[in-house]
Write a structure and sequence with these properties.
With 410 residues, the chain is an alpha/beta fold. It is built from 12 helices and 13 strands.
Length: 410
């Protein structure tokens, strides 16, 4: 594989997405790649020839370790949908002309469902036109909804943040002990899949009972049953804490958050911007019960908290980045790197690879057998699956009392 390579990041950032960039760069240098470019703001930046040379930032092992401890997308992200090449072949001709100009022989894209579609389109066009470039996808999404792979880098750290934060919220809400409990509703990311919200169950332990109910998008949300459950809990407990996915929907197909106001913003992939579910439900509970309520929305905090990232997640994000370069070096293209679980106790996970067509634009929901019969909690099967993913920590490099990050020059 003689030539240069380029790597990009796409979609919502995670606490460990930069570990995959570190893996790509380290592997590239190990196999003798001269120059490793980074797309500034993903494929959208690539088409504008907005590149950086990663060698300018990763001059030592210390720089690489700092990058692994840096949250968000170091290279910058985007939500840009590549057109079908049958509809706009000029975009693809431009993309391949740019690769030839910079002698780029392999492109690596770190992202989720929509990002893998970009890899699919580029690799299929290359095959049709006989282009020399290779394309490999690197999994990333806190939503954990990519098929085939056991789990997605980014999920473990987000799940760890959710578990820790839920435990702290529960402890806080328990402290008042007044006659009427405060009802806290915590909104967690998850449009169609409840993987992130399920992580609230990981707060349970010998010192914490965990949330009183967990509402997932895989289960139709029943307003009347919800209010009845809150009333029952309030009559029997001095503290009530509920976890709810931002994407829970009513029987008529509306998102619960749309009960408050119409959601009008839609991104390039047709996704509505969801938020406000907890506020809608908190207002409803207050009106129906007269209880004090509080809405908490984790929002971007759950995907950017690198100070409590999972070491397992960091290491695996690095490994899939490294493996992607090895795969391309061996001649593979139109593929995505996967994680293959070999054992739960002790936890062992290997690296695999899968045809990109099995991944792109496909969402994996939380398995129904991991949701309790009442639809409001998780079984031990989920706990057994998820617990290993949140294990371990990688302390930040603290300067002046706060973590130091690696920052790309504008």
């Amino acid at each position: 594989m003689n030539g240069n390579i380029i790597v990009g990041q796409s979609g919502g950032p995670t606490a460990v997405i930069n570990s995959s960039v570190a893996g790509v760069y380290t592997a590239a240098k190990a196999v003798g790649i001269e120059k490793v470019y980074g797309m500034v703001h993903g494929i959208q930046g690539f088409l504008a020839e907005n590149f950086c040379d990663l060698g300018d930032y990763l001059e030592s092992s210390t720089d690489i370790e700092l990058l692994k401890r840096t949250p968000s997308a170091f290279l910058g992200s985007c939500r840009y949908k590549m057109p079908k090449f049958a509809d706009n072949e000029a975009v693809y001709e431009k993309a391949f002309a740019i690769m030839e100009k910079y002698n780029i022989v392999a492109l690596f894209y770190i992202g989720g469902n929509d990002s893998m579609d970009t890899v699919k389109q580029l690799s299929e066009y290359a095959a049709i036109k006989g282009k020399r470039q290779r394309f490999v996808g690197i999994p990333k999404t806190v939503d954990n909804d990519l098929p085939v792979t056991d789990h997605c880098p980014g999920y473990g750290s987000a799940a760890k943040y959710i578990a820790i934060s839920m435990k702290e919220i529960i402890r806080d809400n328990e402290s008042f002990g007044v006659e009427k409990p405060t009802v806290v509703i915590v909104e967690i990311m998850g449009r169609h899949a409840g993987w992130l919200t399920a992580a609230a169950a990981l707060s349970r332990g010998e010192d914490c009972v965990g949330p009183d109910a967990i509402y997932l998008p895989e289960v139709t949300f029943d307003i009347d049953a919800f209010v009845a459950k809150i009333k029952h809990l309030a009559a029997t407990k001095s503290s009530v804490v509920i976890a709810v996915s931002e994407g829970v929907t009513l029987a008529d197909g509306r998102f619960v958050c749309e009960m408050g106001s119409e959601v009008t913003f839609v991104d390039a992939f047709g996704h509505k911007q969801l938020s406000g579910c907890a506020a809608v439900l908190a207002n409803l509970v207050a009106a129906e019960t007269g209880l004090k309520t509080r809405a908490v929305e984790f929002s971007t905090l759950q995907r950017s908290a690198s100070h409590i990232a999972s070491l397992t997640d960091i290491n695996e994000a690095y490994q899939v980045g490294y493996a992607a370069v090895v795969a391309a070096y061996e001649g593979k293209t139109g593929q995505m790197i996967t994680l293959l679980r070999n054992s739960d106790e002790p936890y062992q996970c290997g690296i695999g690879i899968c045809d990109i067509s099995e991944i792109a634009n496909v969402e994996r929901a939380l398995p129904a057998e991991w949701i309790t019969a009442d639809g409001c909690d998780l079984t031990d099967g989920y706990i057994k699956y998820a617990r290993p993913l949140i294990m371990g920590e990688l302390p930040p490099f603290y300067v002046d009392g706060v973590p130091r990050h690696l920052v790309r020059k504008k």
